[in-house]
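Q: How would the structure tokens look for this protein?
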Amino acid sequence: MKIAMNSLKLKNSLIMIAVMVPLIVGFLAYDLNRQTSSMRKAITERGIILALTGAEMTGKILSDALEKGQLTEDQLFDTNYQPIPNTSPQKYHTAYDAYTDEHLTHIQDAYLKDEIIVYAVALDRNGYIPTHNTISKIGYGENSSRSKRIFNDPVGLAAVRNQELYIFQEYRRDSGELIWDIASPIYVNGRHWGGFRVGFSIEDTYAQIAFIRNQIIAGGAVLIVAMILLILYISSLVADPVKRLELAARRVAQGDLTGVDECGLKMSRDEVGSLTRTFCNMVGNLRELAEKSLNSAAAVAGYTRELQDSIRKVVDKSGQVAARMSGLAEAMKKMEEGAGAVVSASDRTMTSLARAEAASGKFLEQMETSSAVMTRAGESVKELESYVDKVGEILLFISLIADQASLLAQKAVTEAAAGNNAGGNNFSALAGEIQNRARDAAAATRGITSLFEKARLHAAQATVTLEKDRQVVLEGYNAAREASLFLSDIITDLKELVKRVTEVTACTQLVTEGIDGVNAAAGEQTELVEGFTEAARMLEQGIGEIQEALTSLKI
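A: Here is the predicted structure in token form.
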């Protein structure tokens, strides 16, 4: 789990780590330095002991040689170094080197059993090594031709001419190796003969120191990791109850008062446990007050919703009433316009009725006048009809005469074609007959002409009479049509007026219903406002109790 930077657990852990880790690191550094110093000191002390022991043993062996007469003092302190031919680097013999080869070799070689000791040899006051170590080590012993050589370098001369208890020197040999050199003076019968030098490989010593340092660092790292884990565990023990309490407080701050009780938080007998119990009690009280407040708020919300619905209904009713009032105003305006139009139409109708009355009177007079004319025209038509009948009869007679004349003419033609006298006589007779028939036809034609002249006169009289009657009838029709148009306008205006009155009545009814609905909604709102006021009072009382509870929790 990712820990926030402002976490109490992280802060406690960082503080404890910031305090403990430097202490542990400091202690480890001190211990490392102490162990390094102790190791250096131990090596130095061991080298001093070895150098003192070697010097003492070498001095004792050389002194015994003098006492036993194996060597004389002149031989033992011989500085007449005889070069050994064909040696490089140059080697030398002395009067005592054979004795040292026999009696010092095994003593000096015993020192090299210690791995960090590079050499352990006795040298005279001029740096001459009569006998070197024979144990094979890389770069040393006989293989390196260091036996019977003179090492008169500053370090070597300082080591062999020192007359203090010991001398410690650090130098780099010709092989490139860094050496700790500890030398102690050799005395033979109280006379300074030289020194016993013990050389330690510092690289091996530093390797041992590095090994010890790595062990200390590794152990310190393990100790630090274990300490950090222990610190985190302790911080968790300290901070987890506070964290749980903080999470519970955050839930409470977000309005969630459920599930926060003594069962959900670990109780202890320290200050955190006391704070937790106090917090749980506070949350319980707050939950009870919140439930009461929620009930009151729910009641207020219910009344508020009902009041909003009622207000919405009233607004809707008011809108409907306003729309109907607007429609009523428009209808009244149209009614007023329609009434004006009716009045105007009525005036026009009165004028049209007066004109129609005059036209009707004139039409009646003309109809009376035309009645006699129509009677005469009828009589003339009847006479014309009789004349036509007569003309028909005459025409029928003329047709018969024409048929007879045709037959006679045909007969005359036939006889004329025969060419005899008898036929001529018959032709003459037929011609006379045809002439008679022609005279009859002419007389009939004159009768027809006379009849047609009478018919034309009667027809002319009838036409004049009918023309007069038609003009009178046309004038009466025009007057009647004008009166009908004005009556139609009056009927249309009356219908519009009736429509406007009906709309005004309907709008008035709607306005009445809307006002009744507004009054009913106002009554409902009054009841809802009373309930809302009571619920608000209960909510205010609950909030007051919550404030008192919070005031009692102030520190």
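The longest strand covers residues 178-188.

The chain has two domains: 8-231, 291-551.

Upvote if useful.
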